[in-house]
């Protein structure tokens, strides 16, 4: 099963808090933690602060990663994969890479992307 060819998305914009998750197939998924994306993720996962606490105690699940990645990817690209597809990509790519992207995303969400000055 192959996905239709789509143009390569623009690179992640750190001033928006975006990060990139590159899957095992080499496709880059820009994850944008917009307000709407985070509200949608919280509707499924509960408070993001609690998710961060669970993650710090090794309690983050593949489902939680997939849901958060899905909503944040959809904020950057409406054609981004569904949560179940993100789950499969996470397992195919490996939890180490997914957790690195998750940590970077949570740092942006909890710490804010605008450290060190104004947007260019």
Number of helices: 5
Q: Summarize the main sheet.
A: 2 strands, antiparallel
Q: What structural class do helix, strand and pairing data support?
A: mainly alpha
Oligomer: single chain
Beta-strand portion reads: 5-15%
Order of helices and strands: EEHHHHH
Give the strand order, joined by hyphens, for the main sheet: 1-2
Low-confidence stretches: 116-120
Please give the share of residues in helix.
40-55%
Return the average pLDDT rounded to an integer.
87
Rounded to the nearest angstrom, the radius of gyration is 14 Å
Shape: globular
The separation of the N and C termini measures: 41 Å
Describe the 3D structure.
- The chain is mainly α.
- It has helices spanning 35-45, 48-56, 62-76, 83-93, 95-111, and strands at 19-22, 28-31.
- Strands 1-2 form a two-stranded antiparallel sheet.
- A hairpin with a 5-residue loop joins strand 1 and strand 2 (28-31).
- The longest helix has 17 residues, at 95-111.
- It is globular.
- 35% of the residues are buried.
- Mean pLDDT is 87; it is low at 116-120.
């Amino acid at each position: 099963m192959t996905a239709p060819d789509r143009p390569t998305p623009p690179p992640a914009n750190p001033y928006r808090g975006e990060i990139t998750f590159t899957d095992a197939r080499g496709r880059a998924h820009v994850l944008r933690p917009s307000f709407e994306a985070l509200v949608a993720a919280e509707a499924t996962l509960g408070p993001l602060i609690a998710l961060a606490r669970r993650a710090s105690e090794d309690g983050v699940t593949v489902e939680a990663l997939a849901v958060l990645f899905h909503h944040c990817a959809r904020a950057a690209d409406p054609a981004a994969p569904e949560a179940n597809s993100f789950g499969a990509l996470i397992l195919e790519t490996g939890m180490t890479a997914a957790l690195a992207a998750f940590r970077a995303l949570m740092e942006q969400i909890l710490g804010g992307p605008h450290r060190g000055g104004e947007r260019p």
